[in-house]
Amino acid sequence: PAPQDSDRTLEIRMVPYGNDQQLLLARDVSQVHRLETMRRDFVGNISHELRTPLTVLRGMSEQMAEMALPEADALERPLGLMEQQIERMSRLVDDLLMLSRLETEAPEAEHMALDMSDLLSGVADEARTLSDGRHAITLTVDEALTIRGDRDELRSAFSNLLTNAIKYTEPGGRIDVRWFEAAGVACLAIADTGRGIAPQHLPRLTERFYRVDSGRSTRDGGTGLGLAIVKHVLSRHNARLEVNSEPGVGSTFSCIFPDPVREAQPASRADDR
Ligand code: ADP
């Protein structure tokens, strides 16, 4: 059905036309917009609806694991697998909900300047717990450098990047996290000595469910949504993601914030543990 005039969306472009003339092109994208809104609502609703049955399933499987059943030994493996799959599905649902919130809710109009060294120490500590001593993780922070932003959203984006660095780096590898200013922009660089990514995959990495090696990534507990979340969070902060990677050598994921805030007393801190 044709949309009402009041909810028409036009995409307008200027293109060069002949000698020093411009042509104004207007395309009616109302239908595309409506379908996109329906898709977002559908994904948001379905993820929300899946939460309750998942909670029930988790409760039941925990109860069964605690029961003194005569077949306890035979049940151990299937129950363990059930729990793993419930966990995996919960992660998927949480990530889908987060993505749908990022796509539908407008970002806060006025953001606070963040305590980046506190935020990043928290994320690095979490990563050290996850790595459990298998990687050398360092954090270097320019303490006078900060940005305005949503603490929870950024925390989840940074934590996704660090979790990936751990997942895709063999034990014994290094992960270096640096918060610094260069050429007027603030940058969070997360460099690993992991398996790296072949150049043909780089342009598609932030697509939902895109994985370089899907069998492997699923076993590693990934949902394929992490980098899509990172991309959305960054774009809500007027920031962008840059990826440099060499297969077999490692990857650097850089979050680039064009509007840094510099606080009065510059100081640098290297916190190597
Ligand atoms: P996943 O949940 O599969 O990790 P992501 O969206 O976070 O999904 O990442 C998409 C894909 O990008 C991953 O499946 C992996 O193939 C690749 N990738 C992401 N981070 C790294 C990294 N640090 N080193 C190597 N490959 C990576």
Automatic annotation (TrEMBL):
An MF annotation (GO) of this entry: ATP binding
Subcellular location: Cell membrane
Keyword ATP-binding on entry: yes
Keywords: ATP-binding, Cell membrane, Kinase, Membrane, Nucleotide-binding, Phosphate transport, Phosphoprotein, Transferase, Transmembrane, Transmembrane helix, Transport, Two-component regulatory system
EC number(s) from the headed UniProt entry: 2.7.13.3
Coiled-coil residue windows: none
Record carries keyword ATP-binding: yes
Source domain of life: Bacteria
Example GO biological process: cellular response to phosphate starvation
Gene Ontology CC terms: plasma membrane
The name this protein goes by in its record: Phosphate regulon sensor protein PhoR
